[in-house]
Write a structure and sequence with these properties.
With 273 residues, this protein is an alpha+beta fold. 45% of the residues lie in helices and 23% in strands.
Length: 273
Amino acid sequence: MTSLRRHQNALLRESLRTTGGRAALALPALIGLAFGIASSAPADNIVLLTLGGALIGAVFVWARVRRRAVERALREWGTPLGLTYASRVTLPERTRWLRQTDGKTGVGLTGPLAGAAGGVCHYSYYTGSGKNREEHPATFAFTSIAASDGLASLSLGPRGGGSLFDGLVGFLSSDREVEMESVEFETRFALWVADTTDEVALRRIFTPAVITGLIDDPPTGRLELAGPMLVTSFQQHLVEPADLDAIAAELERWATAVRPRYPSPTGPGGATG
């Protein structure tokens, strides 16, 4: 049984043991029954109104249970790590993907992660409209690194794997795709930076050794730098401990790779080869 389902089952039992929980389930059914009787509806319609009200009550109770189960699952994973639950996480810096998809961050955890202040949070953006409206859920893991005037932001993702995002980025006149010296890197990845990006600062991070590491062991999700923040993004809203462990390890992996090559706030430093 998954962690989320375990919490859902426990919360549902807790809810049905309380007067408020039972009322939330039964009241819509009673309202449907009373309306049917008051309107002198046929018996079949009264039954349908009662069942419809019961269904509305069940949907309401389940939605509340699911929200609270997500909170419990996140707290269960994050509390031992010193992370604090938040009903809405606001990233200190908005990455290029956030600016272009224009979605919303949701629940998450904040505190020490990958060696500095950071956290994890859920994110959703939408495409289409009406019947074609579609939600795209994701989970961010982020941590602080030193800021750099020459490299304010970048976005690295699999080429073709994020065609929607890459297409949106391409419309921005302030963005450009960088070509690296490796043909295999160019085939597998798309690297976008702002026009103002300093080439020396960029190549301080994307050294031949780092490029080889990216090819041999690609990132699990998208990697982005936004000011002093390193952000990794993954598909779906993740809550299971194994999944959260995996994204925390992935963030740690790239934070460890990036920090020694990033200028410190007081001056240049770190490896350059």
